[in-house]
TrEMBL record:
UniProt keyword Hydrolase present: yes
Matching Pfam families: Glyco_hydro_10
PANTHER family from the UniProt entry: GH10 DOMAIN-CONTAINING PROTEIN, GLYCOSYL HYDROLASE
Catalytic machinery residues: E449 (nucleophile)
Keyword vocabulary terms for this entry: Carbohydrate metabolism, Glycosidase, Hydrolase, Polysaccharide degradation
Name listed for the protein in its UniProt record: GH10 domain-containing protein
One MF term in the entry's GO annotations: endo-1,4-beta-xylanase activity
UniProt keyword Hydrolase present: yes
Entry similarity comment: Belongs to the glycosyl hydrolase 10 (cellulase F) family.
Domain GH10 span(s) in chain numbering: 215-514
GO biological process: polysaccharide catabolic process
Organism domain of life: Eukaryota
């Protein structure tokens, strides 16, 4: 795939190499130049130019809050604008410091380095990287300021900090850029057309039998690209929720009811009644459901009885392994063929509960055993922040490495889940993550838990559109599932698309407008060769043809394909 490019540059801050000052306990700042082209990074995502090689080094840092800072010109930052933070960061141990050398050796796999925007005593996250010694990590942060924060009147300052004490921090070409979402949307038009549309030729006869001049109307009934939402046992009882879900979504996922802590909160006491109830609701509505999730890797969500199983000896580990096996056989044995997707071991980039106790080999074994129990299901990895560029633990590169490790262990990874719990999304950053995942793995991607948190509903609508247009334009993405949509029934506040009364707010209306935009409605007349041509989104259609003999309706499907789809309509 082509490298992600920035469609518009409005640079409001460009870190001057001589403008940096120490922040906190820093021995010295010094200017350097990376002369070896082989050590320079490639052009960045939306940065606007190639790296200069000039960087500033903060040496002798006493703690993680220490680093370097630079003032942003007064009046440069505006409220309600999404800003990109771009540049490159590296780390190095000071040669004369044993403490630094030990920290650098310990952090050979990388140290987290953060960028903050400080205004009036408040710090706003401007992005983070996992910086490795001898390598340049690209910064892909984003932030937005409120009118209240700018009214404080204090100067805004960029602050680069993080990594353990004694580890030197390098900063190259740091810039703050105002994004232009409309320019980005214009850039996505051709990409969307190529990924989601196909030329169609409808043949209505030939020669004397051709109904030349007959009126044709082609209406798309369903788009092949699915949108879904999470549901739970309480919310399906709300008529306004059920009506909106049934009318506007194609897939479901259960918010909690399939998770192990729900189906077996106490050892041996199984509860599948809630999951059965939700499956029945989906069956009646004609909606397939994702299986979320078989296991969850994060310690904080593992039920206590599992934690109480000792893992410091062979007997205890055998007991935990038996519980894992029982979970697999109980869940997939009961629901084999019912869930097209399963998230096998949720959030492995952020948790290691089972691997820490049973060894790394347990993760691919979960996939292998799940595939044996339900061969038809696609088995997914699923994690958060990968698409945001702000989490050193969840970079696209680390996700790719996790997938490859699983595959080396015999795991049949069938898809990549990006949860999509976002704020201040930037299209180029989302696209960069998708490109890296797709290019490295060749696997389909689903956005599995999308919600956009923003108190201002107009900005929430804009942010939602940024994400949806970006993922819809990307050929690797095969579906989007929202993590709820109704006020009062969502995990994150300030993310609803629909009020408690079932009426769509501005963000919800934007969602519905996009769904309408991504359906084809074409009309015209059959030409002298008995043909009607159009280009339409993939999905199911109905064609109405009005001839002297009367009107005729024909249903057909437009699948993916590079060549024109030619269909004989049989008139």
């Amino acid at each position: 795939m082509a490298a992600t490019t920035c469609t518009h540059q409005d640079v409001v801050f460009e870190g001057n190499a001589v403008g940096w000052a120490p922040s906190g306990a820093v021995t010295a700042l010094s200017l350097h130049h990376e002369h070896d082209p082989a050590r320079l990074p490639t052009s960045g995502v939306g940065h606007g130019h190639k790296p200069t090689g000039r960087y500033v080094l903060a040496a002798g840092r006493a703690g993680e809050d220490d680093g370097l800072c630079q003032a942003i010109p007064a009046g440069a930052l505006k409220p309600r604008v999404t800003y990109r933070v771009a540049g490159w960061i590296s780390v190095a141990a000071a040669a004369a410091s044993d403490e630094a050398a030990a920290a650098a050796e310990e952090g050979a796999a990388g140290h987290p380095v953060h960028v903050s925007i400080r205004v009036g005593g408040r710090a706003v996250d401007g992005g983070a990287v996992c910086a490795e010694p001898g390598k340049w990590a690209e910064l892909k942060g984003a932030f937005r300021l409120t009118e209240e924060s700018l009214l404080l009147g204090a100067a805004a300052v960029v602050h680069v900090h993080g990594a353990p004490a004694g580890v030197d921090v390098k900063v190259m070409d740091l810039r703050i850029i105002a994004t232009d979402r409309k320019a980005r949307f214009s850039h996505l038009k051709d990409k969307t057309d190529k990924a989601r549309k196909r030329d169609v030729v409808l043949r209505f006869g030939s020669g004397e039998a051709a109904p030349a001049g007959a009126s044709v109307r082609v209406v798309q009934v369903d788009n092949a690209f699915p949108f879904g939402s999470c549901i739970n046992c309480e919310v399906i009882k709300v008529p306004a929720f059920a009506d909106f879900f049934t009318a506007h979504f194609d897939w479901a996922v259960f918010e909690n009811e399939l998770k192990w802590y729900w189906t077996e909160a106490q050892r041996g006491q199984l509860n599948y009644a809630d999951a059965d109830r939700l499956l029945d609701f989906c069956d009646r509505a004609g909606k397939p459901a994702r299986g979320h999730c078989i296991f969850w890797a994060v310690d904080g969500v593992v039920q206590q009885w599992l934690k109480d199983i000792p893992s410091n000896d062979d007997r205890g580990r055998a007991g935990l392994a038996a519980a894992v096996d029982s979970r697999l056989r109980g869940l997939l044995g009961r629901y084999a063929g019912r869930f097209p997707h399963y998230d096998v071991n949720n959030e492995m980039l952020h948790g290691r509960f089972f691997r820490d106790r049973l060894g790394d080999a347990v993760a691919p074994r979960m996939f292998r055993d799940a595939a044996a129990l339900d061969p038809a299901a696609k088995l997914f990895v699923n994690d958060y922040n990968v698409e945001c560029g702000n989490d050193p633990a969840a970079t696209p590169e680390k996700y790719v490495q996790l997938i490859r490790d699983l595959q080396r262990g015999g795991a049949k990874v069938g898809g990549i889940g990006l949860q999509g719990h976002v704020a201040n999304p930037v299209g180029e950053v989302v696209c960069d993550a998708l490109d890296k995942l797709a290019d490295a793995t060749g696997l389909p991607v689903w956005i599995t838990e999308l919600d956009v948190r923003e108190p201002d509903v107009a900005l929430r609508a804009d942010d939602l559109e940024v994400v949806l247009r970006e993922v819809y334009a990307h050929p690797a993405v095969e579906g989007v599932v929202l993590w709820g949509f109704m006020e009062g029934h969502m995990w994150r506040p300030d993310a609803a698309l629909v009020g408690a009364d079932g009426v769509a707010n501005e963000a919800g209306r934007r969602f519905l407008e996009l769904r309408k935009e991504w359906k084809t409605d074409a009309g015209g007349r059959v030409d002298g060769d008995g043909v009607f041509r159009f280009r339409g989104f993939h999905g199911t259609y109905v064609a109405q043809v009005a001839t002297a003999k009367g009107k005729m309706l024909k249903a057909f499907t437009v699948d993916k394909g590079d060549e024109a789809l030619v269909l004989d309509m049989g008139v």
